[in-house]
Design goal:
By secondary structure, this protein is an all-alpha fold. It contains eight helices and no strands.
């Protein structure tokens, strides 16, 4: 199995090095965008073979990930559609976690609803709440909840948990870049160059790890 994965990992490593080099030394290069999208497409293609139930769910999630990245990365517009696709991704990951765990689904949903409500309330209090922000906060609350829920899966969920953690790191970088104009303090300006590169520094490893976790949570 490891030998079968070696070509995939080598190609992903080459793409990763290439687009990070472009982001660092030729920011704004259009080629970087296509290399990034290709790397996610390869994750999806790796799972286009017979899979067990967990593998099929992961493949479906990566399909919606491709859709989200098409709007957010390639087209760079219609962000609401892209974020909505990522919301579906997190619902599928919830299904992966639920079928592999013991906690009642109603309790999982209640905890997620509480977390989303807290984030939306905080954004409203800061005067930063609009349609896209609300959708993004709902998505991020589900991603965060999925990460903590995945920790209960033990060793079989390690790759998945680490992938979700890196996913969170990516989204924190995205948030810093989007909110930097309204965030005070020189520290934000210092962190901004890292955040611009850090989005994909975290994102591709997260998707590779999630891809490698396919089929491991349950039969």
């Amino acid at each position: 199995m490891k030998q079968k994965l070696l070509p995939f990992l080598l190609v992903q490593g080459a793409l990763y090095a290439a687009f990070l080099w472009l982001d660092l030394f030729r920011p704004g290069a259009g080629l970087s965008t296509y290399l990034k999208y290709l790397s996610i497409l390869l994750c999806f293609c790796l799972l286009c073979r017979p899979q067990n139930r967990d593998g099929r769910l992961t493949r479906a999630a990566l399909g919606f990930t491709l859709l989200a990245d098409f709007f957010l990365l390639v087209l760079n517009r219609w962000y609401g559609v892209g974020v909505s696709a990522f919301c579906v991704v997190q619902l599928i990951y919830l299904a992966r976690i639920h079928q592999a765990g013991q906690r009642p689904l109603a309790l999982r949903l209640a905890l997620r609803a509480i977390l989303a409500t807290l984030l939306l309330t905080a954004a409203g209090a800061l005067g930063a709440l609009n349609g896209l922000t609300a959708l993004t906060l709902v998505y991020f609350s589900q991603l965060t909840a999925n990460f903590f829920a995945s920790l209960s899966l033990g060793r079989r969920g390690r790759l998945f948990s680490l992938g979700l953690l890196l996913f969170i790191g990516c989204d924190l970088c995205v948030g810093l870049c989007n909110l930097s104009p309204v965030l005070p303090g020189a520290s934000v300006l210092i962190l901004l160059p890292f955040a611009q590169v850090g989005m994909w520094l975290f994102y591709l490893p997260s998707q590779v790890l999630i891809t490698l976790s396919a089929g491991k949570l349950c039969d």
